[in-house]
Amino acid sequence: MNVGVAHSEVNPNTRVMNSRGMWLTYALGVGMLHIVLLSIPFFSVPVAWTLTNVIHNLGMYVFLHAVKGTPFETPDQGKARLLTHWEQLDYGVQFTSSRKFFTISPIILYFLASFYTKYDKTHFILNTTSLLTVLIPKLPQLHGVRIFGINKY
């Protein structure tokens, strides 16, 4: 019995991305970010798309790959505090629907940003770099790996 814990999951952080309406909320959030950036008068359409892509990928990297632990009280003896949110997602099982969704969504945003910037060299380099920084940590081979000891503790 877990005293003071209002949920039945060992780690609710593992199931939050599968909760009802999460994917729709995520897509609407990205859409709202883009609309806000488009409404700024001195941003052109290519700049707004590149900023949408870069801000989205920066937020995704921080939230999924940099921050470790869980905001919930868990009875797992501290195992979750050593894992990033991506590593906790679906209990670490690879190629689940939520992992596929959060892998494909930055790729789709990258294609949209590249198309609307007309493959301009500067925007293309920024968008590609941003995409790679968020896709490489999602590879199954890098599950639990800390390159150069970064984010080890």
From TrEMBL:
A cellular component annotation (GO) from this entry: endoplasmic reticulum membrane
Transmembrane segments: 23-43, 101-119
GO BP annotations, alphabetical order: regulation of ceramide biosynthetic process; sphingolipid metabolic process
Major site of localization recorded for this protein: membrane
Classification via Pfam families: ORMDL
Keywords of this entry: Membrane, Transmembrane, Transmembrane helix
Membrane topology: Multi-pass membrane protein
Keyword Transmembrane: yes
Localization annotation: Membrane
Signal peptide (from-to): none
Subunit and interaction comment: Ceramide-sensitive subunit of the serine palmitoyltransferase (SPT) complex, which is also composed of SPTLC1, SPTLC2/3 and SPTSSA/B.
Family, per entry: Belongs to the ORM family.
Function in brief: Plays an essential role in the homeostatic regulation of sphingolipid de novo biosynthesis by modulating the activity of the serine palmitoyltransferase (SPT) in response to ceramide levels. When complexed to SPT, the binding of ceramides to its N-terminus stabilizes a conformation that block SPT substrate entry, hence preventing SPT catalytic activity. Through this mechanism, maintains ceramide levels at sufficient concentrations for the production of complex sphingolipids, but which prevents the accumulation of ceramides to levels that trigger apoptosis.
PANTHER family, sorted: ORMDL PROTEINS
Name of the featured protein: ORML1 protein
Species annotation: Alca torda
Name of encoding gene: Ormdl1
